[in-house]
Amino acid sequence: TEDIAKRILDYGFYAPTIYFPLVVNGALMIEPTETESKDSLDKFVEVMNQIHDEALNKPEKLKNAPSNTPIGRLDAVNAARKPILHD
């Protein structure tokens, strides 16, 4: 789930809320706004299909995502335990 959310960033979309609701294993909560165009939603569907294909054929792309953002994948556990709250 986290790998998919991080890979979505590489395609220029915001990562969805993950693991919510908690009663659904591996949930992704996709919430497009009312102002999203049909073209934008169609592009998102294309991206999700591409990510599905990558998960089956090139899983390392998901494990290493994001790769097209200024900052790569953060160590979430370390960031939560040792936050840096200043510049």
TrEMBL record:
GO CC annotations on file: cytosol; glycine cleavage complex
Domain Glycine dehydrogenase C-terminal residues, every copy: 2-57
InterPro entries: GDC-P_C, GDC_P, PyrdxlP-dep_Trfase, PyrdxlP-dep_Trfase_small
GO molecular function terms noted in the UniProt entry: glycine binding; glycine dehydrogenase (decarboxylating) activity; pyridoxal phosphate binding
Pfam families registered for this protein in UniProt: GcvP2_C
UniProt-listed GO biological process terms: glycine decarboxylation via glycine cleavage system
Keywords, alphabetical: Pyridoxal phosphate
Protein name as it appears in the record: Glycine dehydrogenase C-terminal domain-containing protein
Organism encoding this protein: marine sediment metagenome
